[in-house]
From TrEMBL:
The keyword Thylakoid does not apply. PANTHER family: GLYCOSYL HYDROLASE, LP05116P. Belongs to the glycosyl hydrolase 1 family. Keywords: Glycosidase, Hydrolase. This is Family 1 glycosylhydrolase. It comes from the Bacteria. SUPFAM superfamilies: (Trans)glycosidases. InterPro entries: GH, Glyco_hydro_1.
Length: 422
């Protein structure tokens, strides 16, 4: 026996341009990598060379049985200098989109996945009041050229992550989803060097991951609204949303009030951003448990992932239910994954999480797709290449791809649109 998912359910995997394309030299993250005293364990370099190998990679995803691919467009490639738009970069992403259709994959595109052009830092980064107009203009240029090929778009990825980073690091040495170490987050010296490489000073240097105060959050909200409006004016049929990173916030006796404040900080304070969106991108990896003294560490002996998260696939279903209470739009799982060397645990993680998705669908929650993070073992920001999130292994000395059992497992579910019972 098995559970049949909705007929148009999207089954896919996810990448981020900076993490897979390679040599995004005009990005602020490139400056951070190469800054003096940088905490990055590795240099991204060619990463997995997806910018060159995307056709083979998309064909491989399709061969597994997946029917969707979420990827991001790199702003610093499209607009390497303010007001200058690269025709060749636009042509590249047009071909990526057309290749998706050639192989039967529905594209889900993120216009921004953490990395920004270096030149934005010269204007004051994401604290600059110029950002909303400039980001909307970038989206407008892209959509005028290739928007007809984009059925689903996230303006930005994990808009709430900066607040999570700030709060997590102010309490414990927890490794955040983006892989930024606590000491690196708190140490300003390497950021001064990064600012210099961006052609500015530390006073102007304000990356996406620093959007955690009221003023910058308001700029973020306005950026999303203006981008959504620009996109809709050009392609009214494109479904527009954003994504949030949401742990399953739980409490033990005495921790209820703290947990409720966390949920407001991580999710509810952003609800006014999504009021006119078409769908919501939900991203989940683990749970957070709070007691009267704050966050409670996992029990001794609990299974932890390479990132230090508790292995808790039931979190996904729990979070879907929580967000559905405040949303009247469809939910798409735009990231969900696990960093592990043991691929059998990844299979178990996916299976148990999908049982939770199945239960939510049974309860009437409108879930439109499951996009796994990530397609390939890739460059995990400051953690470098040590974190194995991929469904597909990559030998970076040869760029050879090797399909893991978890990729075949997810693909087998996608092919029949059914989660088979054990």
């Amino acid at each position: 026996m098995g559970f049949n998912f909705p007929p148009e359910f999207l089954w896919g995997s996810t990448t981020a341009a900076y993490q897979v394309e390679g040599n995004n030299i005009n990005s602020d993250f490139w400056a951070e990598e190469h800054a003096e005293g940088s905490p990055y364990k590795d240099k991204s370099g060619d990463t997995i060379d997806h910018y060159r190998l995307y056709k083979e990679d998309i064909a491989l995803m399709a061969s597994l049985g997946l029917n969707s691919y979420r990827f991001s467009i790199e702003w610093s490639r499209i607009e390497p200098e303010p007001g200058y738009y690269s025709r060749s970069a636009i042509a590249h992403y047009r071909d990526v989109l057309e290749t998706c259709y050639q192989y039967g994959l529905t594209p889900v595109v993120a216009m921004h996945h953490f990395s920004s052009p270096k030149w934005l830092m010269r204007l004051g980064g994401w604290a600059s009041p110029e950002v909303p107009e400039r980001f909307a203009k970038y989206c407008e240029v892209v959509f005028k050229e290739i928007g007809h090929l984009i059925p689903y778009v996230l303006t930005m990825n994990e808009i709430n992550l900066p607040v999570m980073l700030r709060e997590i690091f102010s309490k414990i040495g927890f490794i955040a989803p983006v892989g930024i170490a606590r000491d690196a987050w708190e140490a300003p010296k390497w950021r001064e060097s990064a600012a210099k490489l961006c052609g500015t000073t530390i006073e102007n240097y304000f990356t996406f991951h620093m959007i955690s105060d009221e003023a910058s959050i308001n700029i973020l909200k306005e950026s999303h609204r203006k981008a959504r409006k620009a996109i809709k004016q050009i392609q009214s049929n494109t479904k527009v949303g954003l994504s949030m990173a949401l742990s399953d916030i739980q409490s033990i006796p005495g921790g209820e009030e703290i947990a409720e404040k966390k949920w407001h900080s991580y999710f509810r304070q952003y609800l006014d951003m999504v009021e006119e969106d078409d769908f919501f991108g939900l991203q989940n990896y683990t749970r957070e448990v709070y007691g009267p003294e704050g966050q409670v560490k996992p029990e001794e002996g609990a299974e932890l992932t390479l990132m230090g998260y508790e292995f808790y696939p039931e979190a996904l279903g729990n979070v879907i239910r929580k967000v559905s209470k405040d949303l009247s739009i469809p939910i798409m799982i735009t990231e969900h994954g696990i960093a592990t060397e043991n691929d059998e645990r990844r299979v178990e993680f996916i299976r148990r999480a999908l049982e939770g998705v199945q239960a939510c669908l049974d309860e009437g929650v409108d879930v439109r797709g499951y996009l796994h993070w990530t397609t390939f073992d890739n460059f995990e920001w400051q953690s470098g290449y040590s974190m194995k999130f991929g469904l597909i292994e990559v030998d970076r000395s040869t760029q050879e791809r090797k399909v893991k059992g978890s990729a075949n497992f997810l693909g087998s579910i996608a092919k029949v649109n059914t989660l088979l019972t054990k």
